[in-house]
Specification:
5-stranded antiparallel sheet; 385 residues; mainly beta; globular
């Protein structure tokens, strides 16, 4: 993680920890680098110290019952996914230095924790090939892993196909970039993903799958061949980087993504999902998705591209928080800042937003780029980072 992104995440924790009422507007706190450093506890943890090549997407989740983290990332060989357990108290990495979840054909891992059974559900997109001559395509896969590191016994179930639009007789669509969330009340997972054609280089739809937790293995609740549609756009609009989380107070999931358009403003869009599987009744609230940004009514209006959202639920203030990139100009050299938007924790057909978007870390020159923000709630009251 680079220093600028780390500064953004620490600053965001301080801003959001100060919220008291849903309508409050956060006060900007100016921190010096020394003040930020005081909020860092411990040294950097060398999770993959022997790699000499670029590593890809990463994800992490925390077991509240064992106090251990599970960290995953795209490995240093094409298509590999690695994992590591970390002791949350000591920062010690557990097990050998190189542990593979998948040695080839896997990308974009994500992970979510299930407290009921003390286990993690790991999801990723995987390249599969069928038929002769072989036709290759991407599907969404998943696997349960234990909440505590056990040498030689970290898996809590076999790998399973969560969603696939292909068979030996059907062309179908490619499914990529899964994001997962877990409903602690009804014990159900939701996985959202991009849905399109890899050969055409375009994804116009966001789809989802819902799974029951199941004592031994997640239970398929929706059709693994089709899933359920969250939003589909015309062919000139592409969707990028879906994310999802769950509100225990509002009883909803909220999925967000970037709506990309080559000629128009890029937007952050969201849609509320039911917190449990509703057979035959649909899984989405309302008639359509809602633009979350660059919509703004505040003194610092957003008028240009917003991209790459990440979402968390703030249990203290009972609202969702989305962070995203904001490009404050139309030319190629325009700087990137990080902004956030607070959304209601339960579906409201009249308005989803609590207040207007606010700056988390603004670029102070044309050359600055604050990019790829991520946000996660710690599980502690009024403490987000």
């Amino acid at each position: 993680m680079n220093c600028k992104l780390l500064f953004v995440l620490v600053l965001l924790s301080l801003l959001l920890a100060g919220f008291n009422l849903p309508g409050d507007y956060p006060q900007v706190v100016n921190l010096t680098p020394a003040a930020v450093e005081q909020n860092l506890d411990g040294e950097l943890i060398p999770i993959n110290p022997y790699s000499y090549s670029s590593l890809g997407e990463s994800a992490a989740a925390y077991s509240t019952r064992t106090g251990q983290y599970l960290v995953l990332w795209e490995g240093d060989t094409e298509g590999s996914i690695k994992y590591k357990y970390i002791d949350g108290t000591t920062g010690e990495t557990l097990g050998p230095s190189h542990q593979y979840l998948l040695e080839e054909d896997g990308y974009n891992p994500d992970v979510v924790y299930d407290k009921l059974y003390d286990r993690f559900l790991v999801v990723w997109d995987e390249l599969n090939c069928l038929g002769i001559p072989a036709k290759c395509y991407y599907v969404i896969k998943g696997r349960l892993m234990r909440g505590r590191y056990q040498d030689g016994n970290v898996y809590a179930g076999d790998a399973l196909t969560i969603a696939s639009e292909h068979s030996t007789s059907t062309a179908g669509y490619d499914l990529r970039e899964p994001a997962a969330a877990y409903n602690e009340t009804d014990h159900q997972y939701v996985i959202v993903y991009r849905y399109g054609r890899e050969s055409a280089g375009a994804y116009y739809s966001i789809y989802g799958q819902m799974l029951g937790a199941g004592e031994k293995q997640p239970q398929e609740l929706t059709d693994p061949f089709s899933g359920f549609e969250i939003r589909t756009y015309p062919s000139e609009v592409e969707v990028v980087k879906p994310d999802v989380t769950w509100s225990q107070d509002g009883g909803t999931f909220l999925a967000v993504w970037q709506k990309y358009h080559e000629t128009n403003t890029d937007e952050i869009v969201g849609r509320y999902l039911y917190d449990y599987y509703r057979s035959g009744f649909g899984q989405v609230y309302g008639d359509g998705a809602t633009k979350l940004a660059p919509y703004n009514e505040g003194p610092d209006p957003l008028t240009y591209d917003c991209s790459l959202p990440s979402i968390a639920y703030d249990r203290s203030n009972k609202n969702y928080v989305v962070v995203f990139e904001y490009k404050g100009g139309t030319d190629f050299a325009s700087p990137f800042s990080v902004y956030a938007q607070r959304l209601k924790g339960a579906y409201d057909p009249t308005s989803k937003r609590i207040n207007y978007a606010f700056s988390v870390e603004a670029a102070d020159s044309q050359a600055e780029y604050q990019v790829r923000p991520e946000i996660v709630y710690s599980g502690l009251e009024a403490d987000m980072y």
